[in-house]
Write a structure and sequence with these properties.
The chain starts with a helix and ends with a strand. By secondary structure, the protein is α+β, with helices and mostly antiparallel strands. β7 and β8 form a beta hairpin. It has five helices and nine strands. It has a seven-stranded antiparallel beta sheet with strand order 3-4-9-5-6-7-8, with no helix packed on it. A two-stranded antiparallel ribbon has the order 1-2.
């Protein structure tokens, strides 16, 4: 990994406070190896807002100290303003960080933190994705529950106007505990109604949650990933 001021700050403050990575991870409500993966493997690429706030309180620093000064721009023609065929128009789609700790009947999607903008062909979005660019947001995939369909760091193009996905479709949603990406299907005969949330990775078992606890951010219409 290249030099990263945020990770260097975390390592320095952990040593100064005498706090182990395991202790900090558990204090953040994460698994015991979460911070070690962040510091040594670069996964996740950045800490979520709630994680930054909890960790900042633990280390005695500002949450802004745990966020990169500028978002790291992914390589490849999808970011910025790529060359487009003559006459083609580009739509500006915001990449956002959604606060997965919102809860209480909200997903935080109404007040996301914009961290970048992507320029994508408008005709592709409208005709192939059947979406209006103003309804689209880009989110970064985290974790491995949807591998091999999705991997850590893949970008999801999400249509936030589609909040009633059909059975089998992939959606970003609040499942009552956190923000996840899953395929959905109704649990037949359930009363009260339940939804089954299905991962692509067979290591993760499907699980059912009350439909009233599910708050859908939007349907995933595209995945952007490096080759």
């Amino acid at each position: 990994m290249t030099r990263d001021p945020v990770r260097e700050t975390v390592r320095h403050l952990l040593r100064r406070k005498g706090i182990t990575m395991r202790e900090a991870s558990l204090a953040m409500g994460r698994n015991a190896s979460y911070l070690q993966q962040f510091l040594t493997r670069g996964s996740p690429a950045t800490l979520r807002r709630r994680d930054r706030e909890v960790l900042a309180g633990l280390l005695g620093c500002s949450a802004s100290d745990l966020w990169p000064a500028e978002p790291v721009k992914p390589e490849g023609p999808a970011y910025g303003r790529p060359a487009a065929p003559a006459g083609a128009s580009l739509a500006e789609i915001p990449e956002v960080e959604v606060d997965a700790a919102a809860g209480g009947g909200t997903t935080g999607a109404d007040h996301p933190l914009e961290i970048a903008r992507w320029s994508l062909p408008e005709d592709m979005l409208r005709h192939e994705g059947r979406a209006s660019p103003e309804n689209l947001r880009i989110l970064r995939a985290r974790g491995d529950s949807m591998e091999p369909l999705l991997g850590e760091g893949d970008r999801l193009i999400v249509d936030i106007s589609r909040r009633v996905p059909a059975t089998g479709e992939m959606a970003v949603l609040w499942d009552g505990l956190g923000l996840v990406v899953k395929r959905l299907e109704a649990v037949s005969g359930s009363d009260p109604a339940e939804l089954r949330l299905i991962s692509a990775n067979p290591v993760y078992e499907p699980y059912a949650v009350p439909a009233q606890d599910v708050h859908i951010v939007g349907k995933v219409i595209w995945v952007l990933r490096k080759a």
